[in-house]
Amino acid sequence: YIDFLIPGLIGMTLMSSGMWGIGYVVVEMRTRKLLKRLVATPMSHTQFLFSFVLMRLAFLLLELPILVGFGWLSFSVGVAGSIGTLLLVAVLGALAFGGIGLLVASRAENNQTASGLINVVMMPMWIGSGVFFSTRRFPAALQPFLNALPLTALNDALRGVMIDGAGLRALAAPIGLLAGVAVVSFAVALRIFRWR
Prior knowledge:
- With 196 residues, the protein is mainly alpha-helical.
- It has 8 helices and no strands.
């Protein structure tokens, strides 16, 4: 079970840090009127939001070795596949959830609204994305919806690399879903982002 659980916990951590670390921080800046001050600078929306992406990726390079190392040292959960593939999956997961976090924060006016929206987005994934138990335990009618969740794709890809040693070709579907979520969420967030 621990081999199943550790990749799920890594996926949940990437989701939480992307949503809270980007979405909540942007709303906090809006409530403290920092975004309003940034309007006076020559910085564009794209540059501002891209800076959060770079920050998230920098933290990912610190988080991932700690999480994988903890699983290996404490429970002997190793990585059967390529470390490069694991890093690619983690980066795509961080980008996808960072994009969703920005999307949630693009219009939220206060911290309470942002917290509620972030929890509404994350709750179905905590329950239905296979963090603690397999998504196959849910009824067949729910399977298409559960498989469309980005955390399900991230967890499946992490387990594929860590447990099965899967390569990029075997992980094409979850990688494609994560990349699609990242691109669409960032594109929509850029269009609807509100500085004030």
